[in-house]
Design goal:
76% of the residues lie in helices and 0% in strands. It contains 5 helices and no strands. The longest helix has 35 residues.
Amino acid sequence: MNALLILIIAIPLIEIYLFIKIGSYIGAFNTISLILFTAIVGIWYARYEGFNTLKSGISQLMKNELPLYEMISGAALAFAAILLILPGFATDVVGLLLIFPVTRKLFFGKISEKYSKNKSKKNVIEGEYEDMDEKK
């Protein structure tokens, strides 16, 4: 079965289950307030981290380096903000994990190390040349 189809079915079921369980413990009003609070605070913090990532990317460009981690991090922050906007506790947990720099580095650190090394030096052939027309 397609993994996307399973996610489309499973995520709302998990969220409904968590709404019922958490709502039975803390009440309906507190559950809704908690969802709104995590959305507002999460988006505010995603914006803050987004600006930090942008500053870091610009400094990488100034050093004439490819800001690969910053590009991946920016995309992860946008995805995390979407997850925080969606109502639910499971999506909020995943969104919060993606927003914090420590967990984001754990997720994407290996990708950045793999592709950021300059591999073009392996294909360079060094040599000397001489212009034959000038010697005539």
